[in-house]
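Preliminary data (for renewal application), S-adenosylmethionine complex.
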Amino acid sequence: MTDNNASPLDPRLLDAATARYRSAGRFAYHFARGKLGRDPAFAAILARSWIRPDSRVLDLGCGQGLLASLLLAAGSRCRVRGIELMPADAQRARDALGEAADIVCGDIRHEDFGKPDAVVILDVLHYIDYAEQDQVLQRIRAALPPEGVLLLRVGDADAGLPFRFSNWVDPVVTFVRGQRLGRLYCRPLRQWRGALQSLGFQVEVVPLSQGTPFANVMLKGSLLP
Ligand SMILES: C[S@@+](CC[C@H](N)C(=O)[O-])C[C@H]1O[C@@H](n2cnc3c(N)ncnc32)[C@H](O)[C@@H]1O
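Predicted structure:
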């Protein structure tokens, strides 16, 4: 496991990344500021240069497109395509990002993944069942080129109280966002890591819970040329 000390976003970068959400409504703007400002995953993705410049990035379950907005604000030349199930979230992403990203309202279980260089999935896979998770991971592996990268953030079901707290908060946030409540399909970290390794990924595990009460972990899956 790699030690994780990702610093929070620079305030000017936070302002730049969230400004475009003013045009997407009050909820979109305040949600963007809260999430980008507090969630260590976004700062870590930038600080660790996990996504190479000029990459075609596929953001599965992109919500309102926060990753795309952050990359743009940081001056990245990446082109982001996001796939989001909920029409309201996809619309907020489009309202904020316009032509700067490609937002598809669709289901990651069925949408074509295209030819990305990097795939990002932050807090999404536990909404679909175990067989579907494996299918999505297989399709990601098939879509990525040699040297492709997968950033997968999950909760570690072995993490005890922080994991139980995450699982309590998740339905509350889902409800607040006006989404359907359903069963969550979580796995221990060792199973997630095994699933990626069995597909040929070299896996780096980065805990991403500092400053939060959650049990979130980022798995960086790299393919070797
Ligand atoms: C916890 S949110 C995370 C959003 C985004 N990844 C982020 O970090 O800001 C999970 C998102 O996954 C979306 N989602 C869940 N199941 C999905 C599916 N089968 N296909 C596409 N999106 C899905 C939800 O609608 C929601 O926007």
